[in-house]
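User: Hi! I have a protein structure encoded as tokens and I'd like to know what sequence might fold into it. I'm fairly new to this, so please keep things simple.
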């Protein structure tokens, strides 16, 4: 309560800073445009982070027009762009005690007292609730206010405490340092160049030490610290911090955990800057690409998450210009070359990599599998965070994912198979634009012709989700609906039983949501398949132990039965006019060979279960002869009759 109160008082004591109106087009030395163009334009290039023109001297610092708000200039400019006036026109900072107000003097006296500061730091570094303490924004606001209102007056008193605490790896002490450091970075907003430069000479080694001593309990606090420090700050003001964080984040010193933590902290800072640091994003991507074949799972997951933020601004929306930040299409093209050893094989891909330091020579396939595991982490992370779905790029990876993803859910499968299945599930739920639908369907058709029945099976599960999540977009495209119908009916005649059954399930769902209609051509098609002749038992080879029914004939007949079954099960709570005849057609196959017999029994059983409650109403749709046949089929004969 006391900390919040003092932070509030400091905010009330904040001196107003003078602002002046600026013309962004004059600063960018370009002409004004009338239409709205989103993204990187000539008139906002001067705001971007450029290592060649950073304010490293006092003259460059004073001449630089700092824009603290990250969103300004990306979509459009404010009607009046107000920036802070030069330092000589601002209220004087670092006042002497006699020039302060009475309230300021009280605060100054307490926070200049070494004994008070020592007691305060002891209190702030105490553990409150073990395992539940988090970075405290109230404490951050307190120190931000102190350094904003009183310049660097309290830094000499706090400095020895910070240097002592940062060497201690305990959770509570590290959190205390993180809160003070975040407040210090945000509070130095209006300091002079000389003071800011000296501050970073002190802070950079301090943060390096903190990242060396980082632990499981403290990594999230340091991530929050850097993200909070970089929020609503011009990246050119923080170039010391970004250059320090970009120094070999994945160098192996301290093990895989420390590498993952360095990336996490760097990600927190870059994510706050969004579109304004394309150079840093390019440099980071160039640094990470050779390291995508990481063996350790925690580093792979973190690299995947970092890649999501690297490509965050690569969006394809109306009136949006191509970003100067890294593009997914270029990255995908490069990794596809490295994944070629896996793309060229038809057999199912197995993971044979164990988590150990994989130094030394390794074959291309091993390197490709390690790369693929990182790419999967990226696809999973980007599915929930990206502004738009990179459909054309993801389509190039689809055939590879279908080769890996297992059919059934099983926790015993390794990480790569589980991740591939998750990726396919997330990608199938993505929003598709009308023009993208006709890009996806040819790829699914191609995979439906794969030699792997697992891939053909997974195409159907992918198709189900994709259609249901983009139902109205599909329905507005007759060609797409026709292609989906063709694909499902094709896989209904697949040689693999599991694929045929999944095709029937898919067809039933599409009929139930009125995506497809049960029309006369479809009914005729299934009835024709049902009439495929099978050789009679007496005409088969009597000496053969194995059934010698020609597989193609059996598949066709079973496909027809599955089609009728799908139509019946697509209406679980009513009886359309066409259903009685289909039930009669289906009953004729009750004594067929397996697996046809089992399909008929399951269908009749499900029909009875779903229509039992309103049977008195439903049976009005049947003729007396049909009811007689149906009763014989649905009612089990009494054992004692």
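Assistant: Happy to help. Inverse folding works backwards from shape to sequence: for each of the 641 positions I chose a residue that suits the local structure. Here it is:
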């Amino acid at each position: 309560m006391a900390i919040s109160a003092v932070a509030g008082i400091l905010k009330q004591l904040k001196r107003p800073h003078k602002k002046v109106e600026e013309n962004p087009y004059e600063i960018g030395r370009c002409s004004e445009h009338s239409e709205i163009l989103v993204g990187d334009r000539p008139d906002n290039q001067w705001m971007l982070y450029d290592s060649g023109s950073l304010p490293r001297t006092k003259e460059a610092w004073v001449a630089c027009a700092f824009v603290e708000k990250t969103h300004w200039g990306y979509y459009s400019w404010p009607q009046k762009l107000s920036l802070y006036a030069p330092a000589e026109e601002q209220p004087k900072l670092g006042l002497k005690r006699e020039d302060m107000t009475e309230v300021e003097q009280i605060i100054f006296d307490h926070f200049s007292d070494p004994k008070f500061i020592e007691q305060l730091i002891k209190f702030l570094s105490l553990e409150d609730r073990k395992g539940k303490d988090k970075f405290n924004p109230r404490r951050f606001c307190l120190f931000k206010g102190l350094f904003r209102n009183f310049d660097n007056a309290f830094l000499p008193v706090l400095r020895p405490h910070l240097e002592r605490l940062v060497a201690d790896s305990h959770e509570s002490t590290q959190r205390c340092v993180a809160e003070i450091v975040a407040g210090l970075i945000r509070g130095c907003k209006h300091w002079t160049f000389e003071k800011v430069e000296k501050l970073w000479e002190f802070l950079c080694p301090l943060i390096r030490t903190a990242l060396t001593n980082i632990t499981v309990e403290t990594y999230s606090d340091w991530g929050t610290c850097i993200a909070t420090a970089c929020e609503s700050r011009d990246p050119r003001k923080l170039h010391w911090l970004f250059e320090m964080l970009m120094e070999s984040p994945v160098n192996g010193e301290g093990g895989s955990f420390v590498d993952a933590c360095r990336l996490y902290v760097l990600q927190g800072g870059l994510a706050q800057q969004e579109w304004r640091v394309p150079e840093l994003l390019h440099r980071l991507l160039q640094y990470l690409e050779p390291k995508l074949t990481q063996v350790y799972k925690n580093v792979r997951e973190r690299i995947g998450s970092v890649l999501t933020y690297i490509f965050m601004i690569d969006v394809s929306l109306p009136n949006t210009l191509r970003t100067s930040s890294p593009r997914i299409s270029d990255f995908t093209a490069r990794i596809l070359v490295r994944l070629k050893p896996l793309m060229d094989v038809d057999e199912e891909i197995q993971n044979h990599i164990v988590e150990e330091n994989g130094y030394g020579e390794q074959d291309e396939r091993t390197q490709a599998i390690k790369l693929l595991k990182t790419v999967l982490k990226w696809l999973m992370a980007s599915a929930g965070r990206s502004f738009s779905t990179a459909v054309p790029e993801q389509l190039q990876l689809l055939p590879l994912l279908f080769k890996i993803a297992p059919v059934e859910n099983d926790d015993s499968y390794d990480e790569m198979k589980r991740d591939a299945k998750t990726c396919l599930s997330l990608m199938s739920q993505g929003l598709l634009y009308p023009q993208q639908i006709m890009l996806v369907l040819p790829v699914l058709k191609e995979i439906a012709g794969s030699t792997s029945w697992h891939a053909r099976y997974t195409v159907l599960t992918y198709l189900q989700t994709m259609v249901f999540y983009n139902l109205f977009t599909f329905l507005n495209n007759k060609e797409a609906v026709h292609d989906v119908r063709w694909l499902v009916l094709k896989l209904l005649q697949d040689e693999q039983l599991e694929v045929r059954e999944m095709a029937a399930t898919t067809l039933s769902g599409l009929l139930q949501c009125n995506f497809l209609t049960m029309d006369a051509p479809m009914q005729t098609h299934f009835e024709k398949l049902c009439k495929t002749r099978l050789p009679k038992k007496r005409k088969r080879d009597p000496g053969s132990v194995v059934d010698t029914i020609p597989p193609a004939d059996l598949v066709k007949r079973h496909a027809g039965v599955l089609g009728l079954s799908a139509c019946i099960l697509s209406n679980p709570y009513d009886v359309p006019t066409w259903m009685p005849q289909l039930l009669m057609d289906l009953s004729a196959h009750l004594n067929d060979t397996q697996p046809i017999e089992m399909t008929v029994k399951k269908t009749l059983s499900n029909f009875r279960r779903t229509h039992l409650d309103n049977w008195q109403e439903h049976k009005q749709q049947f003729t007396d002869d049909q009811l007689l046949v149906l009763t014989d089929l649905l009612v089990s004969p009494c054992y004692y009759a």
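A useful reference point when you look it over: DSSP finds 30 helices and two strands in the chain. Feel free to ask if any position seems puzzling.
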